[in-house]
Amino acid sequence: MNADITVIDSTLATFIAPKNIPPGILKMKITNNLLKNPGVMRNEKTLEYMILPEIHYLLPSEVPTRDVTQKVIIHGANFSSMSQCVFDGKLAVTTFLTSSLLECDAPVVFAGYEV
User: Fold this and answer.
1) In the chain, how many domains are there?
2) Which H, E and C letters describe 42-68, residue by residue?
3) pLDDT at 2
């Protein structure tokens, strides 16, 4: 599988990933001249394609005003152990439960507001 690559400078290049690639880890190799040296590939790296997570709903959708963090359960799809909850740009303590459930600590600053 080939991708169109734009060389920015001698140390940086960008590419557009081909469409419809199934999730997983792919090996990527780069060559300066495939036509001249088809067997010579350098610097094999890996690139992970992931399915984006989806949020279906939150429980509770509001947290009471308290001076302690509140647990919020995120129901959705395609979560992984790398998934993180972020409230207004602030990373929250996140517990991965299943690929469709996360538990997050809503920060105190948001207690009483809709999340």
Assistant:
1) 2
2) EEEEEEEECCCCEEEEEECCECCCCCC
3) 64
Residue 73: give the domain boundaries. Answer: 54-110
> Tokens at residue 106, please?
């809503």
Decide: helix, strand or coil at residue 89.
Answer: coil
**19-41 per-position pLDDT tens digit:** 777 777 777 776 666 666 666 65
DSSP state of 38: T
User: In a 3-state reduction of DSSP, which class is residue 104?
Assistant: strand
Q: Which residues of 39-67 are buried (b: 16+ CB within 10 A; e: fewer)?
A: eeeeeeeeeeeeeebeeeebeeeebeeee
Q: Does residue 115 belong to any structural domain of this protein?
A: no
Question: Residue 53 to residues 28, 73, 107: CA-CA distances in angstroms?
Answer: 24, 15, 22
